[in-house]
Amino acid sequence: VQIFSMESVRTIDAFCEGDEQEKKQYAFLRELCEKLNRLTDLYNGRDDSKATPPLPRRPVYDVGNISASNQGVITELVGIVQYFAEWKRDVDKYVDDVLPTLPNYDPSQASRTRQLLFISDETWAGLQYLALGQACLAAYYLKKFQHTGSIVIVQRRLCTDALEHHFAHVRQHQTGGRPNAATSLQASNVAGLAASMTGGTSARAKRSGNSKGREPLGVDGVLTRRMQEAHRHDQDVRADRRSKRQRCQQPPPPH
Predict the structure, then answer these.
(1) Is the dihedral of CA 76, 78, 79, 84 positive or negative?
(2) Which residues contact residue 2 at a Cβ distance below 8 angstroms, ignoring those fewer than 6 apart?
(3) Are 202 and 177 in contact (CB under 8 A)?
(4) What is the mean pLDDT of residues 8-30?
């Protein structure tokens, strides 16, 4: 069972069924599981309600990619950050105002208490980068390309998966046991072309209809475009060199 998932929520509900005291005790944990599970769904952007053929079960994922007609994802991402910000504010208020009034208060306990009552600073910063970065980037591109009427932000491609996949492709096409800059660039070009040949769209996305008739915008799309440009530049350089060699090999014109 994944800790922060709907499976955990259902487990808590089953455990607390008929016991109001237990429900009250586990209410916060249940809400936390719901929020983080929803954050994962928002970032993946999955929507199996449009699967073809239709799924034999009730759709589980109903988020979909961010578009002009589906901007609720941005609001939800900001709302999740606000949820954690309010939690942090409550902890700060307790540590600053309530904790000093307790018997045997030790000022050195403040930092430790914050760590125990809230997520780590690194996790809090990462969560803000994750959610607000996604929301702000989507809002920016929706406004920038609003004249096209068909801009779609594929959330799943804005995480590190695209980079991980790209480097995996580079490693797959790498030759020799000691890679260097030149061989890595060559492998990167090949990997970029391989990705462009597949259209950069997974079979799952095609089945769910998330990318039908739309131009995905994401990190791997940018990488593919850059690799195609690098490949074309490499071809132009090689063609120019061949042309120069051919001109040098031609016999001089008769006088």
Answers:
(1) positive
(2) 8
(3) no
(4) 91
Q: Quick one: which H or E segment has residue 196?
A: helix 181-197
Query: CB pairs under 8 A, 24+ apart, for 233-240?
Result: 234/189
Residue (of 156, 157, 80, 169) closest to 119 by Cα position: 80
C-alpha span between 79 and 187 (Å, rounded): 42
Q: Are 7 and 60 in contact (CB under 8 A)?
A: no
User: Which range is least confidently modeled, 35-39, 187-191, 201-205, 224-228?
Assistant: 201-205
What global pTM score does this model have?
0.61
Quick: pLDDT tens for 53-91: 665 655 566 788 888 777 888 899 999 999 999 999 999
Count of residues in the chain:
255
